[in-house]
């Protein structure tokens, strides 16, 4: 029963993460740029004491200079989370480790491709193969990080429960 609840909760988190990605991708280009711009302004104001003293044009230039890297970092990060969640959910199923990893990566790749396809229908947005690759790299990092940590935990638990030899 506990396993079933855990499985449902983890797959629910996967779907929640996918819904968040869909929600963010559904924003028109101008609105999406405003969201990332506000994030950059907040961070710049927190880490640069004199940011607020800059003219509005200078602040806009700072925001514009970081737009690309922040947006691509967001792609990588949210798909890293999706990869972590997919593999955690797959760990609740009795399949071989390689199959778990493959299914998790497949889910993330298909979702990344569908996300870029979705963006073709949003005002001012475009679907880019480079974003699918970036998203997949993020999810692969999440899957591999989770797989590595899971293997370490399993190894540690096996050592603790194995009989001590004299």
TrEMBL record:
Pinpoint the VanZ-like domain residues.
11-146
Which domain of life does the UniProt lineage start with? Bacteria
* Spans through the membrane: 73-91, 98-113, 133-154
Q: Name one Pfam family in it.
A: VanZ
State the UniProt keywords alphabetically: Membrane, Transmembrane, Transmembrane helix
- State what protein this is by name: VanZ family protein
